[in-house]
Amino acid sequence: MAAVCRTRAVITLHSVPGSITERSPRLDRDRLVRELVPPPRFDAERFGTYRPGPEHPSQAAAVARLEEYADGLGPRPGRRWGFGRAKATEAKGIYLDGGFGVGKTHLLASLWHAAEGTKAFGTFVEYTNLVGALGFQPTVDALSTHQLVCIDEFELDDPGDTVLMATLLGRLTEAGVSLAATSNTLPDALGEGRFAAEDFLREIQALSSRFEVLTIDGPDYRHTDALGSPAPLSEEEVVAATAADSALLDHFVDVTRHLSTVHPSRYRAMLDGVTAVGWTHVRPVTDQAVALRLVVLVDRLYDAKIPVFASGTPLHEIFSPEMLAGGYRKKYYRAISRLTSLAAHGNR
């Protein structure tokens, strides 16, 4: 009888998912640079897999212009054999401006795949984290030999980070690196004189003449299937959906507390091998620092296509109304769009 009980105990332990609190990966600087590639979600995406909507001609126009831009990314100018490299010609950049879910990241990843030579792809936050981990000049040195650097979701809500990135991009363009970036325009700002594009060009004053702005209109494709934000699951349903060794199951408060102990640059490594995430007792986030760390985690979950199962507060209400009206609202709306998409498709 005792032997049977021990066997059952082993089976039970084997089926218990892990906890995010058990994951604190060490900083790997080489990995940070090496992983500046499109996330798994966009591994197979190309210009040919993008489906422009006929009711939004700006989408097809953007595809055509980006294909032309990719064709123009030839060998880096000014190279000399034996005596180093001559001064490079300053490069011209492309800036994709549009609302959530119109396919900007799809197109940016397609450009990366189409370009030849050494190239990098990362979010605005990933590049600022790279500078934080490596230092400014080592980051310049690491990226200045690239043919193309793609920056997804260029953010304008933190003046310090915006100036940092503007300085970094200035150094890269002076080295002859071609740039491509996307915006994070709010849906209700799409008709307001291209507000995000104007902000972008104003904030990077020295770079404004080097960027061509492409406007992409359209609805958020992530929610065109009317799934929207799914109803919260019961705690039992969350536990059942994450009953595997490769899943993580945590109380939501434990998740937010643990994020403060891990540098955001390591969130991607923290999710290595994870196939599902379960959060119980989700509640609205009211602290700005907690909310911003959660945004980075949601971005990494979305990149890796990891479904989210949650009980408690509906995920579209995870950020308080005050936060959604504040300076970081663009980050929060993007996180809601991505998080509810992960939950809806996971439940389905």
From TrEMBL:
It comes from the Bacteria. GO terms for molecular function: ATP binding; ATP hydrolysis activity. Signal peptide: none annotated. One of its GO terms (cellular component) is cytoplasm. Keywords: ATP-binding, Cell cycle, Cell division, Nucleotide-binding. The keyword ATP-binding applies. Coiled coil: none annotated. One of its GO terms (biological process) is cell division. This is Cell division protein ZapE. It comes from Knoellia koreensis. The gene is zapE.
